[in-house]
Queue: 2 jobs
Job 1
Amino acid sequence: MRDLADDRRPRSATLEGRALRISDRVAYVNHDVDDAVRAGLITQADLPLDLLAELGSTHSERIANMVCDIVEFSEGKAEVDMSPRMSAATDRLKQFLLDRVYLPEKAPDSELAKAQRVVLDLYRFYMEHPEKMTGDRRLLEAEPAARAKAVCDFVAGMTDRFALTRFVRHFLRAAFGWIRNTETTGTPPVPVRTDGVPLPSRPVPSCQWEATP
């Protein structure tokens, strides 16, 4: 995860590739700030004032300012990039997220374990059911290495919110139904997901920290 201003980073061969790279950086930096505030890991007041003044005080302002800067700086050039000023500010925001959200020195062990389990369970699920990622059933016939790369790319591209939404869809809804049916009938049924596919024989869900009140 190199800085935008790092000249050692690989350069895309096409303008489309460069636009995709810079758009990805704009999206994930800003959405990660939003997700971190929503999750209570940081507050709006924690964001450095100099960055708020440079980039914008709200989620939409930051994205708008970054996009406008890219358009203005790239106009008339055979390049798609941010101005040095905006690029440096964006890298400082990324460093703030590294220090306070991605790699904090005192990250709660329980929260880290939950995040790791969500990612691991999603990876295992999509390795078994790759068609559930995007509906592409061709992945069912893919070699294990190719399937693993597709799954890794899919999971790595998830925002926190999207990952939790997928986790709930594939595991927790079935678990809550399993618990309610057990309380009503006294006999645990064969657990299935909402799409009717039986869940593995291991405890359902493997992340029971979310399924219990």
Job 2
Amino acid sequence: MRNATLLDLRDTSGTPVVGVESGTSERGTSDLEMSVPDAPGRSSAAATIGNRTDRRLIAHPDADPVFVEQFRTLGAALHHAQIEDGIRSLMVTSGVGGEGKTLSATNLALMLSRSFKKRVLLIDADLRKSSVHHLLGIENRTGLTDILKRPGEPLMAQAISPTLSVITGGQHDPDPVSLLVSAATTRLLVAAREQFDWIVVDTPPVLLFPDAGLFADRVDTCVMVVSTATAGAVASRALGVIGASRTLGVVLNRAEVTEIAAGYGYGPYRSEGNGGTRERAPWWRSIGSRR
């Protein structure tokens, strides 16, 4: 059985799709440092994106230019959506595990903070399997679970750069759903909106746990991540849980470079139909008009 393509997913999901070529699964590291000034209310413990940067991050000096450009395009889509519709918070989820949602959420936060110079807060709300701290190489002594259990305290986030802060998952809790649907979560997001231009939330897979479906009401929109190996029925079911009206677009992870280079992932392209050849709008324009 062949893997899904960008065109397959766009036709079956009914939502705008961007392709992301994730390259090899091999991990590597680099000594990439980002200086961090003192920020009130934020921990300065993480003065770098770790001392070792994962090669899959767009901040890595050897990151694939095509891969980086895809996230720049996704960042442009969100930038336009924010201007047109006032969107400021989004959750990044997937249908099942292993589709690349955490990597996509982290890279999206990096792109919005670096290229678009936005103040971004990345929250690891996948409390069943927190991994943002592993990806960035930062500490996870105090995180989201700890913050939600102590409402009323100042918003504590690790400053990764002058424009990017992170709230990791924190200590394990046996009942993460009760935390995510609590009033403390609402207060946290309200407080975050006062300090940041963007709030990017990584959540558990929507078809495996109820967390993401319940969390969708707390944010402005959703970005769904699917891989070519599990797209199709899995993507349709996942979108059904979140709702197409709440979904800004779909990221097809591990798309073929030839598809991306051909223009199917972003930018205008031509499509043959009954009415002849016509030019379609850039995918980010379609995303921006969905609300």
